[in-house]
Every structure is written in structure tokens, then in C-alpha cells.
């Protein structure tokens, strides 16, 4: 019995469907009788849809299945499709190059979205509303800060950064009213490692190094 390895077989055009589906499509292209070929292709489409049972009855997805069967046949399949036969050139076009945003971010750990929020809030004319928004935005900044610098999230730093980014329009007069770090950590589900545990880890690591040196 001759063994056939995948490395010796033709490459799969759409690997997600597997070699079995590709072989079915290839067989369909060899059927000369049009009615029989149509029946065969409908059966293949049904089998392809069974691989994605939650999507197989969605019209847009069925359209995609018909496009895929034409692609797998190298656009050689001539059948009565409920959708227009796609052109080979459509799938050979290179996608347009996406423009990468070039705007600079003053503080990367806050992100561009928070800077936009600060800019919009700075336009508020009512001084009392600006005070309220300043506290809310400062808490949002602190949440973001904690993700990156859990052990150095100082309220004064947050307040100063907010004042700088808003050009003095948003001021937190009493930074101590901001949410405490442990409260933010609990909300975010971040596991804090105590100093005691960190100390134990260092001790154990040092012991392991000493044992390794003695053995060598």
C-alpha cells in the first residue's frame, strides 16, 4: 500500500476546510453533467456549512461559502450559484495601506483617550462643573496608572499630571480624596503581592542559588 504524505500533496487553498472538502470540490469540477454537478456542489456547500452550524443559515455567510467553493476550485467551477461568481482579481488585490495615527501622547500610561477627555472637559465654562469633572477624570487616570505602576500611584502625581494636561483648567484641590490604590486594585481584579511574600521569594531564590553553587 502506497502511503501519501501531506508534504507530497497539493497545498490547501483554504486550510480551514480540510483536505476532504478540497477533494470534493476538485471532484465536482470533473463532473460533466451540469445537473449532477449542481447537486454535488449543493451537497458540498451543505457539508461546509455543517462545520459552522451557528452561521450556516445566515445569508451573508452562505454567500461566503459559495465564494469559498469557487476559490477552492481555482475559479474553474461552472454551476448555477444563487450569487454572482466572484472574479479572481477581487481576491488578488492588495489591501489598501492603513494610516497609522501620528499624534503624540504626553503620557503613554494614560493613553490618547484620556487626553481627549481632558481636552473636552477643559472647555467647560462652569468652574464648579470643572471641579467635579477633575475629580472623576483624576480617578480614571489613577485607575490607568495603577495598571502600569501599582506601587507608585501617588495622588499628587496624578493631580499634577491632570493640571499639566489641561493647561491649568482642571485642578484637584485635595488629591487625598481620590480612590485608594487597594480599592482600585480590588475593582480591577489585580492580585497584589505583599512585601512579606516578595521577601520570602528572594530568600528562597538565594538559597537555591547557594545550593546550586555548592553542587557545582
What would your notes on this structure say?
The chain has 216 residues and is mainly alpha-helical. It folds into 2 domains: 10-92; 111-191, no CATH class. It is 56% helix and 0% strand. The mean pLDDT is 83.
The low-confidence runs, each spanning 5 or more residues with pLDDT under 50, are none
The rounded distance between the terminal residues' Cα atoms is 55 Å
Helix-strand string? HHHHHHHHH
Count of discrete structural domains: 2
Query: What amount of the residues lies in strands?
Result: under 5%
Average pLDDT metric: 83
Structural class: mainly alpha
Helical content (DSSP H or I, runs of 4+): 55-70%
* Shape estimate: elongated
Report the count of strand segments. 0
Main beta sheet? none
The gyration radius over C-alpha positions equals 31 Å
* Number of continuous helical runs: 9
